[in-house]
Structures are given as C-alpha cells and as structure tokens.
C-alpha cells in the first residue's frame, strides 16, 4: 500500500510530484471519505498552481456527491476557523505552508477545523489506492460550487474575542507585519488595526513567486525584515510563513525571536488567562530545553510529541492543556482553536505586552539564553537514516537524556540537539542549541559531517 500524507498533508513539486492527475484522484478519495451530501469548504493560499488544484479538487468532490463551498484565498487558520464555526462537515486547503515556492499541497480538515488524524489519513489513502470512489448519478449533479464569503470577518471577530481589545488599544503599538507575499496579509493587518496598532506591512501583495523572501521565516530569510523593524522603531514585528499559521516575532530591539521562545511566553500567558485548564503544554521534540526550564517556574508540565502540528493538535485536544506549539512559530491556543494560528499569536503577544506593561524585548529577556544553529542536509540515496539515528544514539549515549520519539534528541546540561528526517522535504534537519555560541556551532558541524553533509 502506498503513502500520500506527510507530516502535514500531501505536498510535492508542482506538476512533477503533485500533478493534476494525483489531485483529481485524491479529491475523489477525499469526497468518498466525507460521503455524499456532506458540506465541505475549500480554500487556498497564494501559491502557484493553487487555482488549478482547487478547481480539480472541487470537480472531484462534486463527482462524489459532496456539496462544495469555495472560500477562495485565506490564511490557513482563518479557513480552519471557518470550517469549525460555520458548520461544515470538513474542509480542504490547497497549501504547502512554508515549503519552497515550487511546492504546493493539499490538506484535509475535520469538522473541528483540525487536520484529520493519522488513522483518518490512512482511510483516504486506502480509498485512493484501492480505487473505491463514490460516483453520483447525473440527476444529482445539479448544484454548482457555492461561494463562502463569511470566513474573514468571522475569523477576525473570533481572534479579537480572546484578548482585551481596549487595553491593547490604549498602547498605540507600532507593528510591522511581513506576510511573505501570501495570505497572511489578508487577516493579520486587520486584526492589528482593530487592536489600535499603527500597522506597517511588508511583502503584503499576493505573489505566487514569493519574490521578496522564501515562504519559511528563518533567521536568514527575515534578516532584512528585522532591519526594517529597527528603522520603524516597531514595538513588535510579525513574520508569517506562506499560509500564516506561523508567526516568528521580531522584538522591540529588532532581534529575531525563535518560535519556542515566543511560545514559552505565550504559554505562560495562556496559563495566567486560563487557570482552570490543566497546567501543561504540548510541544514537539524540536523545541528547546528552555521551554521546560522557563515554564517549570510556573508549575507548567511540558509533554513532548512527534514533530508535526497534526500530532500536537490531536494530543492537545484529547489530553487538554493551556497550549500546544512547534519551535517554528506555530502556536495553538485552545480557547480559540486547536490549530496553529499566526494572527492569534500576535494578538496574545500584544495583550501580554499591554497587561504587564513591558516591551517585547524585555519580555524575551525573561527567558534563558541559548544559541541556536539550525541547518539541514539534503537526502541522497546512499544515506541510511535509521542507521544514522542508531549511530548517534551510540555515540552520545553517555552525554545526556535521549529521546527517540521522532528522530534522535539528546539533552545535556548546557546543550541539546535534534537530528530528524523531514516529513515535508527530502532533507535531514539538524537543530542544535547551547548556552555557548561556539559550542552550538561546533556540535552542529560535527552532526552535519556525521550525517553526510559538508
């Protein structure tokens, strides 16, 4: 039996790995999975091929008897919130999130707006590979694709309902929003304006070629954005990935703050706001040791999961807690929705700043200082990933605590690292953090060489 779904949906290079033929067959499998007369909403980000794949999937869904509602362009969290609050049986989003511009993808949502669980993905794969598709009689194919126009307004109101709007408005914050020429520019600036901010936008026009920077916010790709934030004297910079479910922040000193650092502050704040929720957070093994070091001061337990928002979201929903997050800037706030949400993250950060009357830079100064080195090695045919994992375990067995939930993570007293095969690209990711910058760089170099890079 084949496999279609990766860490987060089905993705591939446009017209090479992700083709119209694949999308058509996948759309029929998704429609069969949801069933005849189900109501499914579909939307997309600004990537190349987005309209092509959306039309193909719409036709496939209609052919299986599904009622299709098109929301068009939208940030992934806005579309997810729309599925949940507007009463749909499920959703489909054409997006490849943070992947390079030549990629696109298809993700499937439950009626809660969350990416379907791994077991449900397997059901769709079984339908796909066994060619067990529903087919509607011509007499039932009498409805066109219908438009869904309520998503943006519903989403903005939803985000604002979870923060103290008036308290934030009194601060008149200056906020820079870099939406990477994609759909983050549709909702996040509106949320910021409703919060009384003076909003500056960068890379705000939709452009499927992503001419300004890569869709993934990294230290390299948003370096120029941080320089602009300094010039503007922004109280907060917000940088999105291609579908705006992530937010990497730039503080009031112009320093880029990685996602597990911001998530540590937001988890603390979520705990303060929701004392009746279980005092725990869920995060992937790719997050820093500083998470436990900081949150334990407030009685918050950290539970580690596999990498991938699907696993974190469903674990959080089942076991309950104040937050779930990934180190890449994806933060989940359960009172709003069990998915990563960039605009919600921004609103919570502004509320924390306003409530504690501190600048974003001083808030980040509360956190333990680690130096991060993040790199990757291209996978080739001669790289045996499982063998590499085992060799790393053996080499570092006496160095500290070892986790093998997803890849290999080693945590020592003054450093930690993770070596893991990506679920969305043909690469091995290497993350290293240490309290000494040269040590972090040295360990990263050793690991890259060990894995087979140069």
UniProtKB/TrEMBL annotation:
Keyword Isomerase part of the UniProt annotation: yes
Source species, domain of life: Archaea
Occurrences of domain Alpha-D-phosphohexomutase alpha/beta/alpha (ranges): 3-133, 154-254, 259-369
Keyword hit for Hydrolase: no
An example Gene Ontology biological process: carbohydrate metabolic process
Keyword list, A-Z: Isomerase, Magnesium, Metal-binding, Phosphoprotein
MF (Gene Ontology): magnesium ion binding; phosphoglucosamine mutase activity
Cofactor: Mg(2+)
Every Alpha-D-phosphohexomutase C-terminal domain range: 376-448
Family designation: Belongs to the phosphohexose mutase family.
NCBIfam families the record matches: Arch_GlmM
Protein name: Phosphoglucomutase
Source organism per UniProt: Sulfuracidifex tepidarius
Lineage, broadest ranks: Archaea, Thermoproteota, Thermoprotei, Sulfolobales, Sulfolobaceae
